[in-house]
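Our preliminary data section would be incomplete without showing what the modeling component actually yields. Below, a chain of 234 amino acids is followed by its predicted structure, encoded as tokens that our downstream tools consume directly.
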Amino acid sequence: MRHLTRTGTTPFTDDLVAYYQFNLNTTDVLDRININHASLNGPAQKVLSTAPIAGGESHRLTVNSAGPQTFGPTQAQVTFGTINPNGEVVLSRLNLLPDSLPSNNPNTGNYWVINNYGSEPFDPLTALKLKSVNGYPIGNPADSRLFVRSANEDINNWVELCAAADFNGNSYNYNSSCGIANMGQFFVQSGNTNPIHMIYPYAYVNEQICDNDSIYLQVVSCFEILDQSPGATS
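Predicted structure:
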């Protein structure tokens, strides 16, 4: 996210002149609006991007006072000090994993990017509350470690800052002891092999158990999914 993106459900009604799509494994570059297709010539090739971009939610606020600021659909809350950005701050919750991870330990399955377009430096954040898009925190808050790197970074140079203080409100909550004085990318990962994130239960429709015009929903919890995995024991 963080820039103009289009999903398969968005209609082409915004007078786009061209919309090039680069996700095919061929040398073709398709124009999805018109027929002005392109192709790669010579040694040109497509490579997988490691940039911090993905689908998700994004929200912008003008921050010019101390106190908590909630960033709309991202469900994140940032509490600023007396010296604050005094300008626009954009927070994005990216619903994919970053290209590189600090370790192979369990994580939340997504990450966050905060861009400050106001003033720097500012006082270290008083608090940072982050919510996953598809689950909630579990386990010991001390295991939920906060990692950070610069806003546009794409290499594995994550720096571990601190542990969560608590999980109040089903958020990963970090306090002033983290000393967050710069915006950037934020990632929550376990400091060990203990899980820190539980996916919400989901429902699906099984056509074989439908009775005429009645539909019965069968809810499967994550624990049941784990129990049904190959080699699992209960």
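The first strand starts at residue 20 and ends at 21. Residues 220-234 have pLDDT under 50 and may be disordered. Preliminary results of this kind motivate Aim 1 of the renewal.
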